[in-house]
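Q: Protein A?
A:
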Amino acid sequence: MRQFELILASSSQTRKDLMDRLHLNYRCISPDINESADGELHADDLAKRLAFEKARVIAEQNPNAIVIGSDQVAWREHAPYDFIGKPLTVENATLQLQANAGKTVFFSTALSVQHLQSNFETTLVEHYQVKFRQLTIAEIERYIEIDQPLHCAGSFKCESLGISLFEKMLGDDQTTLMGLPMIQLCKILREFGIATP
Protein backbone atom coordinates (compact mmCIF):
# COMPACT_ATOMS: atom_id res chain seq x y z
CA MET A 1 0.00 0.00 0.00
CA ARG A 2 1.30 3.44 -0.88
CA GLN A 3 2.48 5.64 1.97
CA PHE A 4 1.45 9.29 1.84
CA GLU A 5 3.04 12.15 3.73
CA LEU A 6 0.42 14.10 5.65
CA ILE A 7 0.75 17.82 6.33
CA LEU A 8 -1.57 19.91 8.45
CA ALA A 9 -1.45 23.46 7.08
CA SER A 10 -1.95 25.10 10.46
CA SER A 11 -0.24 26.36 13.58
CA SER A 12 -3.38 25.87 15.70
CA GLN A 13 -2.84 23.76 18.82
CA THR A 14 -6.51 22.75 18.83
CA ARG A 15 -6.25 21.42 15.27
CA LYS A 16 -3.05 19.57 16.18
CA ASP A 17 -4.85 17.99 19.13
CA LEU A 18 -7.66 16.86 16.81
CA MET A 19 -5.19 15.38 14.30
CA ASP A 20 -3.43 13.56 17.13
CA ARG A 21 -6.64 11.62 17.76
CA LEU A 22 -6.05 9.75 14.50
CA HIS A 23 -2.65 8.31 15.55
CA LEU A 24 -1.19 9.13 12.14
CA ASN A 25 2.23 10.49 11.33
CA TYR A 26 1.93 14.06 10.09
CA ARG A 27 3.73 17.35 10.32
CA CYS A 28 2.53 20.93 10.65
CA ILE A 29 3.50 23.81 8.42
CA SER A 30 1.94 27.18 9.09
CA PRO A 31 0.69 28.84 5.89
CA ASP A 32 1.40 32.54 5.59
CA ILE A 33 -1.72 33.98 4.00
CA ASN A 34 -3.81 37.10 4.44
CA GLU A 35 -6.92 36.01 6.33
CA SER A 36 -8.91 39.19 5.72
CA ALA A 37 -12.23 39.07 3.92
CA ASP A 38 -12.03 39.94 0.23
CA GLY A 39 -15.56 40.92 -0.68
CA GLU A 40 -17.20 37.71 0.57
CA LEU A 41 -20.82 38.23 1.55
CA HIS A 42 -21.30 34.95 3.42
CA ALA A 43 -19.24 33.21 6.08
CA ASP A 44 -19.24 29.98 4.03
CA ASP A 45 -17.50 31.69 1.12
CA LEU A 46 -14.80 33.26 3.30
CA ALA A 47 -14.12 30.02 5.19
CA LYS A 48 -13.88 28.03 1.92
CA ARG A 49 -11.48 30.45 0.29
CA LEU A 50 -9.19 30.63 3.31
CA ALA A 51 -9.12 26.85 3.82
CA PHE A 52 -8.36 26.36 0.13
CA GLU A 53 -5.59 28.98 0.13
CA LYS A 54 -3.99 27.59 3.30
CA ALA A 55 -3.85 24.10 1.80
CA ARG A 56 -2.78 25.30 -1.67
CA VAL A 57 0.20 27.34 -0.40
CA ILE A 58 1.61 24.29 1.38
CA ALA A 59 0.58 21.81 -1.34
CA GLU A 60 2.47 23.76 -3.99
CA GLN A 61 5.61 23.41 -1.87
CA ASN A 62 4.89 19.72 -1.19
CA PRO A 63 3.06 18.28 -4.24
CA ASN A 64 3.59 14.67 -3.14
CA ALA A 65 1.94 15.22 0.25
CA ILE A 66 -1.70 15.18 1.27
CA VAL A 67 -2.23 18.65 2.67
CA ILE A 68 -5.06 19.51 5.05
CA GLY A 69 -6.22 23.10 5.39
CA SER A 70 -9.07 24.40 7.49
CA ASP A 71 -10.63 27.70 8.44
CA GLN A 72 -13.56 28.77 10.55
CA VAL A 73 -15.77 31.84 10.42
CA ALA A 74 -18.31 32.62 13.14
CA TRP A 75 -21.48 34.70 12.73
CA ARG A 76 -24.64 35.50 14.66
CA GLU A 77 -28.13 34.43 13.62
CA HIS A 78 -29.49 36.24 10.56
CA ALA A 79 -26.10 37.90 9.86
CA PRO A 80 -23.82 35.52 7.88
CA TYR A 81 -22.12 38.59 6.36
CA ASP A 82 -21.09 40.00 9.77
CA PHE A 83 -18.05 37.88 10.58
CA ILE A 84 -16.99 37.36 14.21
CA GLY A 85 -13.21 37.21 14.34
CA LYS A 86 -10.65 36.37 16.99
CA PRO A 87 -10.86 38.95 19.78
CA LEU A 88 -7.09 39.16 20.47
CA THR A 89 -7.68 41.38 23.54
CA VAL A 90 -9.61 40.96 26.79
CA GLU A 91 -11.68 44.02 25.92
CA ASN A 92 -12.75 42.60 22.56
CA ALA A 93 -13.49 39.19 24.08
CA THR A 94 -15.71 40.84 26.67
CA LEU A 95 -17.62 42.72 23.97
CA GLN A 96 -18.01 39.57 21.85
CA LEU A 97 -19.39 37.52 24.73
CA GLN A 98 -21.75 40.33 25.74
CA ALA A 99 -23.03 40.39 22.14
CA ASN A 100 -23.30 36.58 22.04
CA ALA A 101 -25.25 36.29 25.30
CA GLY A 102 -28.72 34.87 24.70
CA LYS A 103 -28.09 34.45 20.97
CA THR A 104 -27.32 31.60 18.58
CA VAL A 105 -23.86 31.77 17.03
CA PHE A 106 -23.18 29.82 13.84
CA PHE A 107 -19.83 28.43 12.73
CA SER A 108 -18.89 27.81 9.11
CA THR A 109 -15.87 25.50 9.17
CA ALA A 110 -14.21 24.73 5.86
CA LEU A 111 -11.95 21.78 5.12
CA SER A 112 -9.68 21.62 2.08
CA VAL A 113 -7.68 18.48 1.28
CA GLN A 114 -5.23 18.62 -1.62
CA HIS A 115 -2.79 16.19 -3.23
CA LEU A 116 -1.42 17.96 -6.25
CA GLN A 117 0.53 14.99 -7.62
CA SER A 118 -2.75 13.22 -8.33
CA ASN A 119 -4.71 16.41 -9.06
CA PHE A 120 -6.92 15.74 -6.04
CA GLU A 121 -8.64 18.68 -4.38
CA THR A 122 -11.81 18.87 -2.37
CA THR A 123 -13.05 21.78 -0.31
CA LEU A 124 -16.24 21.67 1.73
CA VAL A 125 -18.00 23.54 4.53
CA GLU A 126 -19.54 22.00 7.64
CA HIS A 127 -21.82 23.87 10.05
CA TYR A 128 -22.31 23.96 13.79
CA GLN A 129 -24.26 26.24 16.09
CA VAL A 130 -24.33 27.08 19.76
CA LYS A 131 -27.02 28.84 21.76
CA PHE A 132 -25.48 31.03 24.45
CA ARG A 133 -27.28 31.44 27.73
CA GLN A 134 -27.69 34.86 29.29
CA LEU A 135 -24.36 35.90 30.81
CA THR A 136 -23.53 38.39 33.53
CA ILE A 137 -20.50 40.63 33.17
CA ALA A 138 -18.97 38.88 36.20
CA GLU A 139 -19.35 35.49 34.50
CA ILE A 140 -17.84 36.83 31.30
CA GLU A 141 -14.85 38.36 33.07
CA ARG A 142 -14.25 35.21 35.13
CA TYR A 143 -14.50 33.00 32.06
CA ILE A 144 -12.02 35.08 30.04
CA GLU A 145 -9.56 35.14 32.94
CA ILE A 146 -9.64 31.34 33.29
CA ASP A 147 -9.80 30.19 29.65
CA GLN A 148 -7.96 33.05 27.87
CA PRO A 149 -9.92 32.58 24.59
CA LEU A 150 -8.23 35.50 22.85
CA HIS A 151 -7.31 33.54 19.70
CA CYS A 152 -10.70 31.83 19.31
CA ALA A 153 -13.46 33.11 17.03
CA GLY A 154 -16.42 33.90 19.26
CA SER A 155 -14.24 34.19 22.38
CA PHE A 156 -14.68 30.71 23.83
CA LYS A 157 -13.10 27.26 23.94
CA CYS A 158 -15.82 24.62 23.76
CA GLU A 159 -13.32 21.90 24.65
CA SER A 160 -12.62 23.69 27.92
CA LEU A 161 -14.69 25.87 30.27
CA GLY A 162 -16.52 27.44 27.32
CA ILE A 163 -19.09 24.64 27.55
CA SER A 164 -20.47 26.43 30.63
CA LEU A 165 -21.56 29.40 28.50
CA PHE A 166 -24.10 27.47 26.41
CA GLU A 167 -27.73 26.45 26.61
CA LYS A 168 -27.34 23.95 23.78
CA MET A 169 -25.15 22.88 20.87
CA LEU A 170 -26.39 21.63 17.52
CA GLY A 171 -24.54 19.96 14.66
CA ASP A 172 -23.43 16.67 13.16
CA ASP A 173 -19.80 16.73 14.34
CA GLN A 174 -18.59 18.59 17.41
CA THR A 175 -15.07 18.81 15.98
CA THR A 176 -16.54 21.19 13.39
CA LEU A 177 -16.97 23.66 16.23
CA MET A 178 -13.36 23.09 17.26
CA GLY A 179 -12.09 24.06 13.81
CA LEU A 180 -11.42 20.81 11.91
CA PRO A 181 -14.35 18.60 10.75
CA MET A 182 -12.91 15.21 11.61
CA ILE A 183 -15.71 12.99 10.32
CA GLN A 184 -15.33 14.45 6.83
CA LEU A 185 -11.53 14.42 7.06
CA CYS A 186 -11.49 10.72 8.00
CA LYS A 187 -13.78 9.94 5.08
CA ILE A 188 -11.40 11.67 2.65
CA LEU A 189 -8.31 10.01 4.13
CA ARG A 190 -9.92 6.60 3.73
CA GLU A 191 -10.36 7.37 0.03
CA PHE A 192 -6.54 7.47 -0.12
CA GLY A 193 -6.36 4.12 1.67
CA ILE A 194 -5.24 5.66 4.95
CA ALA A 195 -6.56 3.64 7.89
CA THR A 196 -8.79 5.53 10.33
CA PRO A 197 -8.65 3.61 12.64
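Q: Protein B?
A:
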Amino acid sequence: MDTSEFQRARSPEAKRLREASILEAARALGRERGIRNVTLTDIAAEVAMHKSALLRYFETREEIFLRLTAEGWQEWSQALSARLRESTDRGPAAVAQAIAATLAARGMFCDLLAHAPLNLERNVSLDAVRDFKLATFAARVPIIAAVRQHLPGLSDQESVDLIATAVALAGALWQIANPGAEVAALYRSDPRLAHAVVEVEPRLARILTATIRGMTTWDREPPETRGQ
Protein backbone atom coordinates (compact mmCIF):
# COMPACT_ATOMS: atom_id res chain seq x y z
CA MET A 1 0.00 0.00 0.00
CA ASP A 2 1.05 3.60 -0.62
CA THR A 3 2.55 5.12 2.54
CA SER A 4 2.87 8.64 1.14
CA GLU A 5 -0.51 9.79 2.48
CA PHE A 6 0.05 8.63 6.08
CA GLN A 7 -0.47 11.33 8.68
CA ARG A 8 0.49 10.90 12.30
CA ALA A 9 -2.45 10.75 14.71
CA ARG A 10 -2.47 13.88 16.87
CA SER A 11 -5.45 13.64 19.21
CA PRO A 12 -6.09 10.81 21.72
CA GLU A 13 -9.10 9.70 19.69
CA ALA A 14 -7.10 9.71 16.46
CA LYS A 15 -4.39 7.66 18.16
CA ARG A 16 -6.97 5.16 19.42
CA LEU A 17 -8.39 4.77 15.93
CA ARG A 18 -4.91 4.35 14.47
CA GLU A 19 -4.08 1.65 17.03
CA ALA A 20 -7.35 -0.10 16.23
CA SER A 21 -6.55 -0.07 12.50
CA ILE A 22 -3.10 -1.55 13.19
CA LEU A 23 -4.59 -4.31 15.32
CA GLU A 24 -7.22 -5.08 12.68
CA ALA A 25 -4.55 -5.27 9.98
CA ALA A 26 -2.48 -7.65 12.10
CA ARG A 27 -5.57 -9.75 12.80
CA ALA A 28 -6.40 -10.05 9.10
CA LEU A 29 -2.82 -10.94 8.16
CA GLY A 30 -2.58 -13.45 11.01
CA ARG A 31 -5.71 -15.24 9.85
CA GLU A 32 -4.49 -15.30 6.27
CA ARG A 33 -0.83 -16.26 6.77
CA GLY A 34 -0.47 -17.57 10.32
CA ILE A 35 1.11 -15.57 13.14
CA ARG A 36 4.68 -16.75 12.58
CA ASN A 37 4.63 -15.50 8.99
CA VAL A 38 3.55 -11.91 9.67
CA THR A 39 6.25 -9.27 10.11
CA LEU A 40 6.08 -5.74 11.43
CA THR A 41 6.79 -4.51 7.90
CA ASP A 42 3.78 -6.48 6.62
CA ILE A 43 1.51 -4.85 9.19
CA ALA A 44 2.86 -1.38 8.47
CA ALA A 45 2.30 -1.83 4.74
CA GLU A 46 -1.26 -3.02 5.33
CA VAL A 47 -2.14 0.28 7.05
CA ALA A 48 -0.05 2.41 4.65
CA MET A 49 2.57 3.34 7.23
CA HIS A 50 6.32 3.21 7.37
CA LYS A 51 7.56 0.76 9.96
CA SER A 52 9.22 3.57 11.89
CA ALA A 53 5.87 5.37 12.12
CA LEU A 54 4.11 2.24 13.35
CA LEU A 55 6.62 1.97 16.19
CA ARG A 56 5.13 5.17 17.65
CA TYR A 57 2.01 3.14 18.47
CA PHE A 58 3.43 -0.29 19.35
CA GLU A 59 6.94 -1.07 20.55
CA THR A 60 7.24 -4.40 18.72
CA ARG A 61 5.42 -6.86 16.51
CA GLU A 62 5.02 -9.04 19.58
CA GLU A 63 3.18 -6.30 21.46
CA ILE A 64 0.62 -6.10 18.67
CA PHE A 65 -0.07 -9.81 18.73
CA LEU A 66 -0.06 -9.92 22.54
CA ARG A 67 -2.83 -7.31 22.49
CA LEU A 68 -4.75 -9.48 20.04
CA THR A 69 -4.27 -12.48 22.31
CA ALA A 70 -5.75 -10.53 25.24
CA GLU A 71 -8.72 -9.54 23.07
CA GLY A 72 -9.09 -13.17 22.03
CA TRP A 73 -9.23 -14.25 25.67
CA GLN A 74 -12.02 -11.78 26.37
CA GLU A 75 -14.05 -12.80 23.32
CA TRP A 76 -13.61 -16.53 24.02
CA SER A 77 -14.52 -16.04 27.68
CA GLN A 78 -17.79 -14.36 26.74
CA ALA A 79 -18.65 -17.03 24.15
CA LEU A 80 -17.83 -20.01 26.37
CA SER A 81 -19.51 -18.57 29.45
CA ALA A 82 -22.69 -17.84 27.47
CA ARG A 83 -22.71 -21.33 25.97
CA LEU A 84 -22.32 -22.99 29.36
CA ARG A 85 -24.97 -20.78 30.97
CA GLU A 86 -27.46 -21.62 28.23
CA SER A 87 -26.70 -25.33 28.10
CA THR A 88 -28.87 -27.86 29.91
CA ASP A 89 -26.31 -30.63 29.39
CA ARG A 90 -24.32 -31.41 32.51
CA GLY A 91 -21.26 -33.41 33.37
CA PRO A 92 -17.65 -33.71 32.24
CA ALA A 93 -18.33 -34.55 28.59
CA ALA A 94 -20.66 -31.58 28.09
CA VAL A 95 -18.27 -29.09 29.65
CA ALA A 96 -15.31 -30.55 27.74
CA GLN A 97 -17.22 -30.36 24.46
CA ALA A 98 -18.19 -26.72 25.07
CA ILE A 99 -14.59 -25.76 25.80
CA ALA A 100 -13.22 -27.71 22.83
CA ALA A 101 -15.81 -26.43 20.35
CA THR A 102 -15.41 -22.77 21.28
CA LEU A 103 -11.62 -22.99 21.08
CA ALA A 104 -11.53 -24.97 17.82
CA ALA A 105 -13.85 -22.40 16.23
CA ARG A 106 -11.23 -19.72 16.91
CA GLY A 107 -8.24 -20.82 14.88
CA MET A 108 -6.30 -17.60 15.11
CA PHE A 109 -6.80 -17.45 18.87
CA CYS A 110 -5.40 -20.98 19.13
CA ASP A 111 -2.45 -19.88 16.99
CA LEU A 112 -1.88 -16.92 19.31
CA LEU A 113 -2.16 -19.12 22.40
CA ALA A 114 0.77 -21.19 21.18
CA HIS A 115 2.93 -18.16 20.43
CA ALA A 116 2.15 -16.12 23.55
CA PRO A 117 4.42 -17.93 26.03
CA LEU A 118 7.03 -18.83 23.42
CA ASN A 119 7.77 -15.38 22.05
CA LEU A 120 5.00 -12.78 22.37
CA GLU A 121 5.65 -12.27 26.09
CA ARG A 122 9.43 -12.19 25.56
CA ASN A 123 9.91 -9.15 23.36
CA VAL A 124 7.68 -6.60 25.06
CA SER A 125 7.90 -4.30 28.05
CA LEU A 126 7.07 -5.45 31.57
CA ASP A 127 4.04 -3.17 31.47
CA ALA A 128 2.76 -5.00 28.40
CA VAL A 129 3.24 -8.38 30.09
CA ARG A 130 1.47 -7.13 33.22
CA ASP A 131 -1.49 -5.82 31.21
CA PHE A 132 -1.73 -9.11 29.33
CA LYS A 133 -1.67 -11.26 32.46
CA LEU A 134 -4.30 -9.08 34.16
CA ALA A 135 -6.50 -9.33 31.07
CA THR A 136 -6.26 -13.13 30.98
CA PHE A 137 -6.99 -13.29 34.72
CA ALA A 138 -10.12 -11.19 34.24
CA ALA A 139 -11.22 -13.36 31.33
CA ARG A 140 -10.89 -16.51 33.43
CA VAL A 141 -13.29 -15.33 36.14
CA PRO A 142 -16.61 -15.79 34.26
CA ILE A 143 -15.37 -19.08 32.79
CA ILE A 144 -14.67 -20.47 36.25
CA ALA A 145 -18.12 -19.41 37.46
CA ALA A 146 -19.83 -21.02 34.47
CA VAL A 147 -17.81 -24.23 34.70
CA ARG A 148 -18.56 -24.64 38.40
CA GLN A 149 -22.29 -24.27 37.74
CA HIS A 150 -22.01 -27.47 35.71
CA LEU A 151 -19.36 -29.11 37.86
CA PRO A 152 -19.96 -27.94 41.45
CA GLY A 153 -17.48 -30.51 42.77
CA LEU A 154 -14.63 -28.74 41.01
CA SER A 155 -12.64 -26.30 43.15
CA ASP A 156 -11.51 -22.90 41.94
CA GLN A 157 -7.94 -24.17 41.60
CA GLU A 158 -9.05 -27.23 39.67
CA SER A 159 -11.07 -24.96 37.38
CA VAL A 160 -8.00 -22.80 36.79
CA ASP A 161 -5.97 -25.93 36.04
CA LEU A 162 -8.65 -27.11 33.61
CA ILE A 163 -8.62 -23.80 31.71
CA ALA A 164 -4.82 -23.76 31.61
CA THR A 165 -4.80 -27.31 30.24
CA ALA A 166 -7.42 -26.47 27.64
CA VAL A 167 -5.69 -23.40 26.21
CA ALA A 168 -2.24 -25.03 26.25
CA LEU A 169 -3.54 -28.07 24.40
CA ALA A 170 -5.59 -25.98 21.98
CA GLY A 171 -2.52 -23.98 21.02
CA ALA A 172 -0.37 -27.08 20.55
CA LEU A 173 -3.01 -29.12 18.73
CA TRP A 174 -3.80 -26.25 16.36
CA GLN A 175 -0.13 -26.07 15.35
CA ILE A 176 -0.03 -29.84 14.78
CA ALA A 177 -3.27 -29.73 12.78
CA ASN A 178 -2.01 -26.92 10.53
CA PRO A 179 1.49 -27.94 9.38
CA GLY A 180 1.32 -26.23 5.99
CA ALA A 181 -0.26 -27.38 2.72
CA GLU A 182 2.62 -29.54 1.46
CA VAL A 183 3.18 -31.34 4.75
CA ALA A 184 -0.57 -31.85 5.23
CA ALA A 185 -0.76 -33.39 1.74
CA LEU A 186 2.14 -35.70 2.64
CA TYR A 187 0.35 -36.90 5.78
CA ARG A 188 -2.77 -37.69 3.80
CA SER A 189 -0.92 -39.41 0.95
CA ASP A 190 0.83 -42.02 3.10
CA PRO A 191 -1.30 -44.34 5.28
CA ARG A 192 1.70 -44.82 7.57
CA LEU A 193 1.41 -41.12 8.51
CA ALA A 194 -2.31 -41.18 9.24
CA HIS A 195 -1.59 -40.70 12.95
CA ALA A 196 -0.14 -37.24 12.15
CA VAL A 197 -3.50 -35.96 10.85
CA VAL A 198 -5.10 -34.23 13.83
CA GLU A 199 -8.59 -32.78 14.27
CA VAL A 200 -8.47 -30.26 17.10
CA GLU A 201 -12.02 -30.33 18.46
CA PRO A 202 -12.62 -34.08 18.94
CA ARG A 203 -9.17 -34.77 20.35
CA LEU A 204 -9.31 -31.80 22.70
CA ALA A 205 -12.79 -32.83 23.85
CA ARG A 206 -11.65 -36.39 24.61
CA ILE A 207 -8.62 -35.24 26.60
CA LEU A 208 -10.57 -32.65 28.56
CA THR A 209 -13.35 -35.12 29.33
CA ALA A 210 -10.80 -37.51 30.80
CA THR A 211 -9.15 -34.66 32.70
CA ILE A 212 -12.41 -33.49 34.26
CA ARG A 213 -13.46 -37.01 35.15
CA GLY A 214 -10.13 -37.53 36.87
CA MET A 215 -10.50 -34.29 38.81
CA THR A 216 -14.04 -35.04 39.92
CA THR A 217 -13.78 -38.75 40.79
CA TRP A 218 -10.26 -40.04 41.38
CA ASP A 219 -9.30 -37.76 44.25
CA ARG A 220 -12.67 -38.32 45.89
CA GLU A 221 -12.61 -42.13 45.87
CA PRO A 222 -11.22 -44.16 48.78
CA PRO A 223 -7.66 -45.28 47.93
CA GLU A 224 -8.64 -48.96 48.09
CA THR A 225 -11.28 -48.54 45.31
CA ARG A 226 -9.15 -46.59 42.84
CA GLY A 227 -8.55 -48.37 39.57
CA GLN A 228 -11.44 -50.79 40.04
